[in-house]
Amino acid sequence: MPEHLKICAVVPTYNNAGTLGSVLCGVYEHIKDIIVVNDGSTDGTREVLSGLSIPVTLIDFPKNKGKGKALKAGLSKAREAGFDYAVTIDSDGQHFPSDIPAFIEAIAANPGAMIIGSRNIKAENMSSGSIFANHFSNFWFTVQTWIKLPDTQTGFRAYPLSKLPCLGIITSRYESELELLVFSAWRGVKLLPIPVKVDYPEDRVSSFRPGADFTRISILNTILCVLAIVYGYPRMLINKIF
Question: What is the pTM of this model?
Answer without folding.
Answer: 0.90
